[in-house]
Specification:
It contains three helices and no strands. It is mostly helical.
Length: about 60
Amino acid sequence: MTADVIPREQAFANARAVLDAARARLAADRAAGRLPRDVEERLAALERQHSPTAAYRAAA
């Protein structure tokens, strides 16, 4: 019965591979200009929120 259980390390590796593939697709679509304008604006806002300077401004 324990053979049906995926080891924790394998589960994290699988999740990381899926996330990396999604990020690669997003980056390719973004570079090719295939994202709708509203999606591009949301991504830019998220990047501003998570930039190192945003953390510095929040701490000040």
